[in-house]
Amino acid sequence: MSRPVLYGRLAKWSILFNQYEIEYVPQKSIKGQALANFLADHPMPAEWEISDNFPDEDVFSIEILPAWTMFFDGAA
Hints:
single chain
């Protein structure tokens, strides 16, 4: 681990990793940039109008879909 002082769970994991000669390398967060890139690559068409009219606002039944999962390979 790159930080000199470790607390709690990280300290416990560091000790366990050292017993088996496992080196932990933290991954930098790129989620924000990935989202920004996606939004930049898929802009909203200019002919679309922003509207606060919701035609189905009185619907009593909804379908709950499974959550999407985004995977990142760490490439910059």
